[in-house]
Each structure stands twice: as structure tokens, then as C-alpha cells.
Amino acid sequence: MKRMCAAALVVTAVLGVVTTGCGPRHQDEERPGTQRGASADGKPPRELTDAEQLRVADAQQRLIKRCMAGKGFDYWEAERLSLEESRTLGWVTDDVAWADKHGYGSRIEAKHERARRNNRNVAYREGLSAERRAAYDKALDEGIDAPVITAEVPTGGTVRKRVGGCVAQAEKQLYGDRVAWFRAEKTVMGLQPLYVPRLMADKRFAAALASWSGCMARSGYTYRDPQEARQAAVEQGLKADQADQTDPGKAFEAERKLAVADATCAKNTSLRAIGNERETHYVNQLRGRYGNDLDTYARLQLRAFARATEIVEPRT
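Request: output the structure for the sequence above.
Response:
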């Protein structure tokens, strides 16, 4: 299940470490899909690829820009990385070529952070008068006056979202029913605590993880799982940033070598494939209760992608 990103919870359960990198675990090219998403044989709607999800995100930015222009304000779309740079690693990657070039993506993350800090929208808003700034906020998302929508999560409790204005309008144009999308998304993302313990106890997954760890040991690295290796790379990078005389190239080379070993072992042990298959197996066990939410989530994503293809070009 590409959308689930079991890694975060796997690592939380095993190591007590929270890491980033959730999202689709492959970068397939865009492929056609119907708005409804259901196939002729009645199978559940397919999931979006990484490239397709990026196109939906880009379309949302474009729609916000158009909406803000209609309200008399400038709005700059978020800076887009290339398709290759936009890869989300998920809980494990077995793309050795990508790892050899980018390591764990620290330089890409730094590039993204620079773009975030230099966001033109922030400077533009700050340059407005107090009255125009309030109008800008109202137009963008309505702030504290925005409508509130709620969703019950599988583990209990309620999550709330307050958003209106152009952001809400863009979501409606893409997904159609904003409330249905919000509730399906929060339900599906909230399934992780229900199935991750089963995944962790799965014999096939545990065996693949042990094989990966053994492979890494033979390469000179002693880590229990990919997230521990990735966390080590992050910590090494932070130490390098704090050292006055550290050679940045040397620090990245250490990250790259570790990432290549990680991806090579994942490929040789089929860890990613086995983990994805077992994850899907345990998520499907929840379909009796949450099947409608899972299908609604996928169907509305497909609807958003179909709309996005009319708005923006795919990333290259």
C-alpha cells in the first residue's frame, strides 16, 4: 500500500524514532485512470503513482494562484523540484542508481528548504498594508473564520480542519466533495496503528528484515532496519553541519555509500516487495469495516488526478 508509509510506525514501534519520508514508494510514470476508479472486474480503485500525486499537488497550487488573482492578489506557486528530485523514499528504497546519485536526498532536502525560506508569498504578504494583509488572509484560507470539518479516526477521537477561501475552492475543484475527501483521507491514514503490529509480527517480513540486516553487516554496517540506517545518516549530517572544519563533500560521500548499501541490500533481499505485499495483505484484512473508506480515498484521488491533467503538465 504505497499511500500508507508503514515505515514511520514500524520505526516508532521498534526504535521509538520518528522519521520523515512518508509517501509513495515508487516513481512510476503517469498512467491513465477513470474518474470513478473502479475496474470492470469490480476490483478496488488503483492507487496513484508518485508522479500522479505530484501533478495533483501542482494543480492545487495552480488553482490557488488563479483564485487569488481573481480576488486581486498575486500568488506564486511552490517551487517545483524535478521528477527525479521529488522522489519520496518511503520506508525503504531499492533504487540503487538513485541512491548512488542522491544518497538519502539530503542535498535535495536542503534545496527544498532554501526554497521554503525564500517563499515569495511570505514577502509579498508582509509588504501589504494591514488592511490588505487581512484581505489577503481572508482570500487565501479565511483564517480563524474558516468553516470547520471533522473526521473520526479509527483509533478513536476526532480530527478537525479549518480552511476556506482559495485553498478550499482548489480542493473542491479537484476532489469534488471536500468533506468526503477529508474524512476518507484521515480514516485511511489512521489505519496504521491497526495493522502495523500485525506486519511487525509477520514471519515473512521479519525474515526479509533479518536478511537485509545481515546483508548490511557484510557491507560493514550494523543496523536493524532501513530507518535506523537513514536516521544514522541524518545524525551524521547534523554533526557535520556543527563541525567547523568538516568537508561537506566528505559528509555526503559517507551518506551516499550508506544509502547505496541500504538500497542494494533491499534489492537483493526483496525487502521492499515483501514489505509492500504483506502491508497490503494486512490492510485488506480491514476492508470488512473500512473498505468503503479505502475505495473512496482512491476514487477521489483518481478524480483529482483526472482534473489535474487538465490544469498542469507533468513534472519532468
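The CA atoms of residues 83 and 316 lie 5 Å apart.
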